[in-house]
Amino acid sequence: MARWMEFRKCPGCGFDFGTGEGQRACAWGECPYLPEELNVFCDYCRFDFFTMEGNPPCPEPLACEHAREPLAHVENYRRWLAPGVR
How far, in Å, CA of 26 to CA of 31, rounded? Predict the structure, then answer.
């Protein structure tokens, strides 16, 4: 099993990684422990390629020069969020 499949949020963390809602138990803006293989955010503008939400400065986020890596992680993210995995 890939290391990222075993990632679990910290005890006391109420953040829902699937919806992006909820209270974190820490003061970090984003989870510092989230494996890179689960990072579905644009490094430039923080557009979420999983939910397709955000305010990207580019007219077509899927064609953006910064989209390649986070788009490659979307399937990992789906698998990780699947019932019974977390």
Answer: 9
